[in-house]
Amino acid sequence: MQDLDKKADEWEPKIIAFLCNWCSYAGADLAGVSRIQYPPTIRVIRVPCSGRINPLFILRCLQSGADGVLVSGCHPGDCHYTSGNYVARRKFAILNNLLEYLGIEKGRVHFAWVSASEGGKFAELIKEVTEEVRVLGPARRLVKSEWR
Amino acid sequence: MNGDDLMPDISTMIRDTARKLLEEKKVDLVIGFEKGTLPLRSTPCFIRNSKEAEKLVWNASCENNLARYLRKRQEKIGIVAKGCDVRSIVELIKEKQLTREQVFIIGIPCNGMVDRKKIDLKLNGREILEAEEKDATLILKGYNFTETLDKEEFLHDSCRTCKYRNPVIYDVLIGNKVAENEGTDEYEEIRQFEAKSADERWQFFTEEFSQCIRCYACRNACPLCYCQECFVDNSQPQWIGKTTNLSDTLIFHVVRALHAAGRCVDCGACDRACPMGIDIRKLTRKVQMDVKQLFHYEAGISVDDIPPLATFNLDDPQEFIK
Description:
The complex is a heterodimer of chains A (148) and B (322).
Chain A: E1 15-20, H1 24-33, E2 42-47, H2 55-63, E3 68-73, H3 84-102, E4 109-113, H4 119-136
Parallel strand pairs in A: 1-2, 1-3, 3-4
Chain B: H1 2-5, H2 7-23, E1 29-35, E2 42-47, E3 77-81, H3 83-94, E4 103-107, H4 116-123, E5 130-134, E6 137-142, E7 145-150, H5 157-160, E8 172-173, H6 188-194, H7 198-209, H8 217-221, H9 246-259, H10 269-273, H11 281-295
Parallel strand pairs in B: 1-3, 3-4, 4-8
Antiparallel strand pairs in B: 1-2, 5-6, 6-7
Helix pairs in contact in B: 9-11
């Protein structure tokens, strides 16, 4: 509710959230139906599995001016397709290290496991991610200047 | 090393092997190196007739990765391959781009190839007209000068840190095995770079990659960049812009490095192909180092290994996941 007091011209982070259809997306749904409050900073893209995430999706978000990116999938062992999240985990580990190495601020890109029953965790996660991105300010690095 | 003493003989032995293979019809084609048009230059050559085997040479400028030429061929191929070429061949076999039976590997232990850019710097504009190799030295002659250089000092950076100088698999090995580079820490430079601040690193990468002219020479020289349609050429969807915009260029190089994760053997072909002298290996080696540290895997060692990003362990690192 505190968001209503904010001025319209105040900067709010824009975060792209890639949510797995089978868990995190349902977790977000649960947070919604349970009326748990969380900041309206995320734009959700539903994906069939965290294994669907191509590192290009994340880079493309940062290039297009997203202030933050969140990828959330099923807990290890819970994947609807048995091992999609395990394979994704390796891919994310490499990507996460490479982004940091490149000099992209730590805290722009987040990864999480949220199950369909964790509505509360989902709301907490969004609060946490939003705060981290807010501290960093608007995206600068990797943003394509022509699109500003 | 004694490998160097045998240098002239290695050329002869390669010729004899190639001739024999072609005459006995064990292979239809031999891929190797011939003398280039400039001194200190060797160029890939394709030999189908045993009489042409005379052209084959071996020296310290046989730097190209010949594995690049192996794909999409029906015939049986003999290939002159040094340590890094063989590792690329192993990766290609693993990725089902070739069969082991299709290639006859003429393995050559390698003491490293010399970097002409470093030599040019040393010569300071003087033109080389004649180059000769003698043991561990290079004798360069031009107008009114003769320089004797120690080869070791002018090796490519990728050769300096190479840990697989001897071919990991081969059908015939030419020359004696050379001593491996055991003592050196191959990723020392990367660790030092990591120790810098994020701002410094970003500064470095923006400066380095703003030079990129998007000629894709790195992609074309890479033996493992063989996608039918590269993501940069894709127009539906168009993933990234095709101009030299810094953001697009960086994303191209980052994604290329990610695509090579667990596959790159650090042959240095991308680096050598770059007309702008961009330090592309700064990115690819970081990924290579991470794959080694996180998943204990090195590319191009055995055809039976499972590629690290096609498999998983239940206890893979995940401290970065919330």
